[in-house]
């Protein structure tokens, strides 16, 4: 399995070009493409010797084939078959990396190799942790060789991977690992099993209560309460409708929400200043100087508040 985001198209093409024709394993790929049309399978098939296509729900996973998450669907795996779900976004992404890695960790245990490549923020960190917990092999692209180093760096902060490699070395390593005998796998943690069940089926407040504690934060996707996962390092959050967030993604969402709110306030203050200035001019024309002065003062307060907000926006 391979997960990537910013800079991922070029990284995946290089990876596909480095895989041998007799590659003895399936490759499942998630690239953050949202609901946008994607020609990624055709690009990967042209780049290397292996066939590639968008995964179809319920198809058998065969060695020597690249399965790409289709637009606006999470790609998961249930043992030997693919699963497609248009479930809640995770880390603001659908398809997201964590659902694939989590499902493979639970259903295939130590027969999994998970690789995190270039990308922003921290999707894939929790998924790579799941692969590690279930006995799979973990690979992280060397952040110094990544177009966007956030995802590799966040993965490295949470997992001590089996391999940290420059991009050019990952395909040869995958080829070496393909077809090797899996070692005995530990049982998945109960919390991971429950998260997997919620990703392929309905979720509920009662289910989330079993693995998380309510926080004072709200979900930036739906506005519901965010719950902090128990005993998870780095911290991770989810709401009872299924949206999930790593720490970096949630920080970015909060910063964007604050900026949006500040710009709304700035617009309202500019409009208030303009309106009060015009009202003051009207009363000045009618000779009501006292009322004109009141509106002039109010316009000045609005302008001063706008300048303070402009300063905060420049500093953020």
UniProtKB/TrEMBL annotation:
Alphabetized InterPro entries for the sequence: CheB_C, Chemotax_prot-Glu_Me-esterase, Sig_transdc_resp-reg_Me-estase
Native species: Cupriavidus taiwanensis (strain DSM 17343 / BCRC 17206 / CCUG 44338 / CIP 107171 / LMG 19424 / R1) (Ralstonia taiwanensis (strain LMG 19424))
An example Gene Ontology molecular-function term: phosphorelay response regulator activity
CDD domains found in the cross-reference section: CheB
Signal peptide: none
GO BP annotations listed: chemotaxis
Protein name: protein-glutamate methylesterase
Catalytic activity: [protein]-L-glutamate 5-O-methyl ester + H2O = L-glutamyl-[protein] + methanol + H(+)
EC number, as in UniProt: 3.1.1.61
Cellular component, GO annotation: cytoplasm
Record bears the keyword Metal-binding: no
Lineage: Bacteria, Pseudomonadati, Pseudomonadota, Betaproteobacteria, Burkholderiales
Active site (catalytic residues): 5, 32, 123
